[in-house]
Fold these 3 entries.
Entry 1:
Amino acid sequence: MNPAPFAPLTGPIGFYPVVPNARWVQRLLDWGVRTIQLRIKAADHEDAEDIAWEVRTAVAAGRGVPGAQVFINDHWQLALEYGAYGVHLGQEDLDTADISALREAGLRLGLSTHTPAELARAKAVQPSYLAIGPVYPTTLKVMPYEPVGLERLKLWVKDAAPCPAVAIGGISLALMEGVIACGVDGVAVVSAVTLAADPEQAAREGLRLAGS
């Protein structure tokens, strides 16, 4: 018996920055970005209370903006506790997270995939979206997977259907148009905004490119 699908997204994904703290979440919301992921680096927040504060603050920021879709990476227990819009999990989390509790609570779920086998496994969960990557080489995170590239991205997006697909990994603003042409529903960026000389300008350009 197949599990019930996760709640669908309430808006388009489009431009999807992944940021390290709640302050970035609020800044991006102020600049018009509506889909954001809070990915807390363990090295930056070793204190459990700090992590809880970041998650709680990010969730509250999203709730204060109509149409906001704020996802919490990894910390699914805190996401449940604070009533987050959604969570984003990796493949390894499928073995440990309480997927049923997340589904029953009405949270949206995004899952990372890096290979056709992972894509099939994640699709069976019927998440709210599937992330495919890394599309390009990335220096921010050591990846045990080779880059997907645009040709395979096109094929995997078709395999993900009808689940929305998000491209992630090494995507700069200059590369976004080529990625979007592969049929993805969203483009996740990590450094394109947070390391930009003018983050607000970068965010607005990302929104323009993604048509969101």
Note: The chain has one domain: 14-210.
Entry 2:
Amino acid sequence: MNQGNTSGVTEFVLHSLSGPRELQLFYFPFFTLFYLSILLGNILIVLTIISEPVLHTPMYFLLSNLSFIDVCLSTFATPKMIADFLVEHKTISFEGCMAQIFFQHVFGGGEMMLLVAMAYDRYVAICQPLHYAAIMSSCKCTGLVLGSWVIGVLHSLSQLVFIVNLPFCGPNKVDSFFCDLPLVIKLACTDTYLLHILMVSYSILMALSSFMLLLISYSVILVTLRHHSSVGLAKAQATLTAHVTVVILFFGPSIVIYAWPSGNFPADKALSIFYTVFTPLLNPLIYALRNKEVITAMRKLRSQQISS
């Protein structure tokens, strides 16, 4: 394990979406449009929240950070995948491969914790409304966001520290459009069975524990909502529906990918694309288009830009 990358393997071959050359060329504008939509949608949410004082609340502060991390999550692999549609040999350097693994787990782990922070914010707002302002102070919100990033970085480093020291001595074909950790571990020229089980179990444990914590939080909130007025109940349920939808869309594919034996699940590549491309696009649609305050702020921002 301490030999490091002594094999001289300098690059990995990525297996992008299968299909003839014509289909690959069709994928290029299709995913380019999706990626640009992710950037525009999430950046618009961030700018809207920053520019509109009415949205300077803990919930929208966390939402703006979710949009930012969604941009990061879609950027670590999607531009490379789009560029690979135009070339025949889809390769990535060893260092680039390690960087993809690192950033995938930084942004993925960070988003998990940020979704937990958003659930905590809704719990305090609904279950302890009189103490909401005191509990969800600006310092507390900043700490939750910074904590999400710190946990994401530590989670990623705990994964990367083992794989960079593995010897790679020949096999270099990754059956995905980016360097996914379980697939890269399989290419090492040593017995990595225990290491593979350990690292995958760690990722699954983190995802499942966060997911269960979120489900428990939302269950408590729903029970509490029974005692609210019908107007407040409808508004809170709409917000919770958006949160739960995002949680399921984010955690579902990632849990299945890591829980299933690597490389044996036929829809593995499709779930990876959904996780890195479609989910970051759905988040702004779910949160913004279902939120009257955000839509109103966007219209106000648009009017200001036109008038100026």
Note: The first strand starts at residue 11 and ends at 14.
Entry 3:
Amino acid sequence: MSNHFTGLNLGPPLGDQRLDLCDLYAFQSPKDPSRTVIILNANPTADALHPDAIYRVNID
């Protein structure tokens, strides 16, 4: 998943930087190979995630 907006007329979803998710990383845990580490990061110019948003990651 990636939402790196570009261009003059594009911007973050609903104009809110906190809703702009950038990357999703998944890798095997270096401490426990039976576990998976998931990291989701948001726009670096946002100060926090949106308190009313639902950030859903579906894993199959």
Note: Residues 1-44 form one domain.
